[in-house]
Every structure is written in C-alpha cells, then in structure tokens.
Amino acid sequence: MKKINIGVIGSGFIVPVFIRQTKAFPQFRLCGIWGRHMEKLEQYREDFEYLTTDLEEILSDEKIDTIYIALPNALHYAYAMKALEHGKNVIVEKPFTVTVESARKLISYARKRKLIIYEAIMTLHNPLYCRARDRVRDLGEIKVIACNFSQYSRRYDRFREGVILPAFDQRMAGGALYDLGIYNIHFVTGIFGKPKKVRYFANITKGVDTSGTLVLDYGDFKAVCINAKDCKSESYGMVEGDKGYLRFRGSTSRCCDYIMKFNDGKQEHRSVMNDEFVGWRYELKEFQRIYNSRDLEKAYAYNKQTLISVDVLEKAMKDAGLNYKEEKI
C-alpha cells in the first residue's frame, strides 16, 4: 500500500493524540508540521521529518498528499480551502466549519478536484454506534432522544479569571456547542437525519456558550441534547421507543458501551474498548480504506452527514444569539 504522507497544520492539544493514533497505522507517515511559533513546534521534533512556520512550505511539499487541520474552529475553513487549492486531501478536525455555506464550498471544491475531504468525528465510525444505528428500529416508534455531554473544562477557571484561550474565545467559535455539542448532534442526526426545527438555550458568558440545551424537533419525536464545559455530570446517549430503549453509557464521542432493554424483558449489552480517543482508530482506519480504494462515493456520503451537522450547529448558534464567524488566514 502506498504511504499516506501527512502534513499537520496546527500545534494544539489534539495534535499529540493524532500523532499517537496515526502511529498505530504503518501506512501513515508524518512528514511535516506547521505552526506560527517554532517554540510550540519543538515538542514534536522527534515525530516529524521537519517543523516549519512557513505555510507555503508545507502546502507545496510534493510528497505530502494529505493535510490534517488541527486549528481553532473559526480557522478550519480558510486553511482547509488553502490545502485543497494545493491539491491535498484534507482531514478537518471537528467541527468541520462554523457555517454550512463554508462547508458546502469545501465539499464542492474537493469533489471538483476529486480530492478527499473528511471530518474527524469519532462517533460515526465506531462499530458499536453503527450497530446501534441499525438496531433502533427494534425499539418501535421513537418517542424521546436524550444526550448529555458535560465535561468541566480545565480551561474554564482561567476563562473566569479573564484569560481567553481558543476553547472559550468568541472570535475562534469556541464554547460548548461547537466543542462538545457536535458529538451529540452527530449521534442524533447520524441515525435520524436532519431535524425539522432547531432551538438552543445557551448559558452565555463573554460572547460564548459555556453550556446549553439543544432541542431538535423531528415532528413525531424530540431530541434533547445537553452540552457543558462549565459543569460536570455523567454523560450518556439514549433513544427511547414504545417497545424499549437503548442507552450508551459515556459520552456520545466514545459510544463504547450500550444496553438495550425491551418492554418484554429481553435485553442486549455490548461494549468495545473504552478509551477517550479510541474512536480515532476507527476514523483513521476508514480514511485509510477510502484513500486506498479511492472510494469517493463513501467520502461524499460522509460529507452529506457533515453538512447536516454543520447546518444544525449554525441554526443553534444563531438561535441562541451567538455571533461565531469564519476567520481568514
């Protein structure tokens, strides 16, 4: 198999996770990493062939065929488009973009160039989530969906003290919805598709939502999704029907353990490896398969799901009166 030569744009928290997970796949080769400040890149010197603060150097590197975007949310669109313009496949960290218009532009341009563009979202590729998606019809008529992804952010105390990092920066489209809520959205829309209506009741401080409750109206049933970075609770994802329910224990990013209980007393329990970032292995494995087989139709199918999720994100953001925008390079 041909090597997948990777260039990384960004140097933040998620990069060490990406490095660790790609090393589990011999086909992935980490070539270069770009960032604005060389001192931040130095920690990755042993992992890459070179470090650079010159964006053109990494985008013009002919041996690199795939760029991974690991930047704050508001910068995803601009840098992903730049990579596509240089003929690179692109893996974009979640959330894909801030607005659905930007998402459409990226996907349309990638299709025109026959390039792969791929949202790094763990939920969709988890085999247990895929099994559950196929089993929900056994629950009968769906009545209620409930998700809770509440995770007290280690950056929240600094935010309250006035130190604004990207995770809580209004200019970078920070906040709970775009960071954690995206997993709840994919969990729900990956099974049930696009909702009829979207409402978001957010707790807003300094222009960002530190927590909130998202309601997706499907007409005959509703989904209630809680996302929080200013408090902590047991996380879960649950689908309830008139014949029983399915409940994932843990966040909608992991989907590593579920139980199905039916009104007649029957039940099913399944689990896979439970690790905070185990989902990376599933999404990288799928990217590798798409790359090797040139399965662009499957890539386009994932793109359609991404468009639904970004559409919900943007509607929720606007409903709450938030003002998140894409930023330029």
Provide structural commentary.
With 329 residues, the protein is of the alpha/beta class. The protein folds into 2 domains: 4-122, NAD(P)-binding Rossmann-like Domain (Rossmann fold, 3-Layer(aba) Sandwich), CATH 3.40.50.720; 124-279 and 312-319, Dihydrodipicolinate Reductase, domain 2, CATH 3.30.360. It contains 10 helices and 14 strands. The chain has helices at 15-22, 38-41, 55-59, 76-85, 100-112, 127-135, 156-160, 176-192, 279-293, 296-319; strands at residues 4-9, 28-34, 50-52, 66-69, 89-93, 117-120, 142-150, 197-205, 208-217, 222-228, 236-241, 244-249, 257-262, 267-271. The strands form 2 sheets. It has an 8-stranded mixed sheet with strand order 8-9-10-7-11-12-13-14. It is globular.
Total number of strands: 14
Considering the protein shown, what is the CATH homologous superfamily of the largest domain?
Answer: Dihydrodipicolinate Reductase, domain 2
Q: Element order, helices and strands?
A: EHEHEHEHEHEHEHHEEEEEEEHH
Global geometry? globular
Strand order of the largest sheet: 8-9-10-7-11-12-13-14
What is the top-level CATH class of the largest domain? Alpha Beta
Instruction: Give the low-confidence spans.
Output: none
| Cα-based radius of gyration, to the nearest Å | 20 Å
Percent of residues in helices: 25-40%
Mean pLDDT: 96
The CATH architecture designation of the largest domain is 2-Layer Sandwich
How large a portion of the residues is in β-strands, by DSSP E? 25-35%
Which topology of the largest domain does CATH recognise? Dihydrodipicolinate Reductase, domain 2
The protein's oligomeric status is single chain
What's the end-to-end separation, in Å? 35 Å
Number of continuous helical runs: 10
Q: How many independent structural domains? A: 2
**What structural class do helix, strand and pairing data support?**
alpha/beta
Q: Main β-sheet: number of strands, strand sense, barrel status?
A: 8 strands, mixed
